[in-house]
Design brief:
By secondary structure, the protein is α/β, with parallel strands linked by helices. Helices cover about 50% and strands about 15% of the residues. It is globular and about 50 Å long. The model has no long low-confidence stretch (mean pLDDT about 95).
Length: about 240
């Protein structure tokens, strides 16, 4: 029980890596507040987690909603020892066909929402000398960027710099960028496979992928490791082993 007694706010915990990470953290003894837009989903996840976990609705694209969720979580738990931010969305298609609304949706979720959440939580994290784990992506290493996913890539490149900026301004809190490789979650289920599959095949031909998807527990165990570490782990970058 490496995280026994820790008070953790998991944002984007209704599905995918956010939910899996929150459950892994709870399994190590932490008390977790599950937050996301889909209240029924986070209530189910909190019940599964046990350890007095609870659910609070939160929309990271709505600043008031995000700030209220953080305040409610901290009030219920008497503070925060850690924040895990997992929400992420993407568009698939050529840049010339990407609309301004699509750009806004990606940046508001993947980048601006992180800043809003951290701004709301930083006082609590400083009080506990806590930690913040932010999911980025291994796409930041792709050169040139992966075809037809530019808004997502741009948001994640900017996010890594944002995390460094927060660490520079708030040295009593440990900030970790967690850049994971490709893993099949609800992130993929939200898109039209007929549109996405040909794009993924282009990535495979360009050697952007490893011939296989990463197993989700391999990612969530790194969330636990970063939170349990006695020191700050600035960045974790993990990819699947090459397929044989």
């Amino acid at each position: 029980m490496r995280l026994s007694g820790k008070r953790v706010l998991a944002i984007g915990a209704s599905g995918g890596l956010g939910r899996a990470s929150a459950l892994a953290v709870a399994a190590e003894g932490a008390r977790v507040c599950f937050t996301a837009r889909r209240l029924e989903r986070i209530e189910e996840a909190a019940k599964e987690a046990g350890h007095d976990a609870f659910a609070v609705p939160c929309d990271v694209r709505d600043e008031a909603s995000c700030r209220t969720a953080v305040a409610d979580a901290a009030a219920e738990m008497g503070g925060l020892d850690a924040l895990v931010y997992a929400p992420g969305i993407a568009t698939f298609g050529p840049l010339a066909e990407t609309t301004a609304d699509e750009w806004r949706a990606v940046l508001e979720t993947n980048l601006i929402g992180v800043n809003v959440a951290l701004a709301a939580a930083i006082e609590h994290l400083e009080a506990s000398h806590g930690k913040a784990i932010i999911f980025t992506s291994m796409v930041v290493h792709d050169s040139p960027p992966r075809l037809k996913q530019a808004p997502y890539v741009v948001s994640k490149v900017a996010l890594e710099t944002l995390i460094e900026a927060w660490q520079s301004e708030h040295r009593s809190v440990g900030f970790t960028a967690l850049a994971n490789g490709d893993a099949w979650t609800e992130f993929g289920d939200a898109h039209d496979l007929a549109k996405v599959a040909p794009i993924v095949r282009e990535w495979q031909k360009g050697d952007y992928m490893y011939g296989r998807m990463m197993e989700i527990p391999a990612i969530t165990e790194q969330v636990v490791n970063a939170l349990a570490s006695s020191e700050t782990i600035r960045r974790i970058a993990i990819t699947p082993n090459y397929s044989t």
